[in-house]
Please model this.
Amino acid sequence: MANEAAIINVAARTSLWLQPHRIVLILVALGLVLGAIFYMRWDWLPQYYEMGLLGIWRSLWILAVTCVLGFLLAVPLGLAQATGSFWFAAPAKVFCTVIRGTPLLIQLWLLYYGLGSLFPQYPWIRESWMWPYLRQAWPYGVLALTLSFAGYEGEVMRGAFAGVPKGQLEAARAFGMSRWKIFRRIWLPQAFYRALPTLTGETVLQLKSTPLVATISVIDIFAVSSKVRQDTYLTYEPLLLLALIYMTITGILVFAFSRIEARIPNKVG
Amino acid sequence: MLGLLHSIEIALGATCLGLLIGTGGAYGKLYGGPVVRDLLAVYTTIVRAVPELVLILLLYYAGTDLINQALTAIGYQRIDISGLAAGIAVLGFVQGAYSTEVIRGAILAIPQGQIEAARAYGMSPSLMLRRITLPAMLPFAIPGLANLWLIATKDTALLAVVGFYELALATRQAAGVTKAYFTFFFAAGVLYLLLSLFSNFLIGRVEAWSRRGMPSLKEAR
Model:
């Protein structure tokens, strides 16, 4: 009985969503997609298929690494701004302002071309173990994206740390928890829950800034599509496919984060 | 210096175009028919899900190509579209999607009674937009729009990738010629930062002005 009711409910919701004009719109969209498939040239796909997969993998890898490292950096930045003394808060504030006030492209180029051109002047850097890494492009890309994520997210974490009710922290102190335990068990989790919706948006923004690393010769999915365009003289097909790929990744990210958000035990605030 | 000027020009133009699209889009999303609403939803979703760099490339090539094809179809000569116009159009289109959402939220934040009162006075929709909706939503929209303006100034740097001459590309060329990469990129960063800080100051003033007569945020807390 309950099962039937659920089915009827689903059917009612579907019919509400599937109004006549929507069906027409979906048909138009399908027509556009089919038109794109049949009238545009896709014969280059098999040749670049593997390269494309590698590019997607590399983009995702950069996204994951920079988000995790950036978040780890953002926690002390936020904490320093929320509660630290002037000597901790001021540098954190300056860092966030500078990162958020300059374009990522300039930061990236400053690190890669600027720092990269300074390093070879010093013999001790050339002889150190870091040199093989410093000669490649990806460490600069990862560093720039990490700093950028930390700058934006640090500001978010500042708000999140400041937003945890005072009573919670006082209660934890009354239980005799040490400062580290308070931070680990009470302060950080609650701040994290508060920051989670913004974190979704920041991660999507971060995904959308990963193609910038292609400008410093890291071969991510964007660079692959540029290569296809140069090799085949096609303008639209690689770009359209690229847009589709990014939209798919965004969709997956948003869905994953909404699942995590749904798991938060109770509504905060 | 010309590069900085170009950057500011594009950012200003793109933000103005984005505001126009955003106001229209927000109105369409709130009061439009079902088809308009769905189309706008598709527009904002797609633009916000695809990286700006990809959109800029796609719109830049597709836009100039389409205009030229349309011109040849009706029997005119092909024209060269200036980088400035193309940059403003492309970034404005992107900004439009974001500002649609900001303005839609701001209009929803206006107390419903104010709009009903305007209707009761028999105001026409355009008069209501001009006298009630726009001024009343401004304090709610300014923080979001300020963010968009800062994003716009920083997005102009992306146009360097399409080969449009603005601050980032000018810096790169100058650095390439003189080999002083660090100095030039550092200087460009400082210029962008100054632009952001100056904008922040101006936005603070504008926000204070748009909130005049409303209870201050600090007291409310």
Q: What stands out?
A: The CA atoms of residues 65 and 142 of chain A lie 8 Å apart. Chain A has two domains: 1-39, 45-262. Chain A has a mean pLDDT of 85.
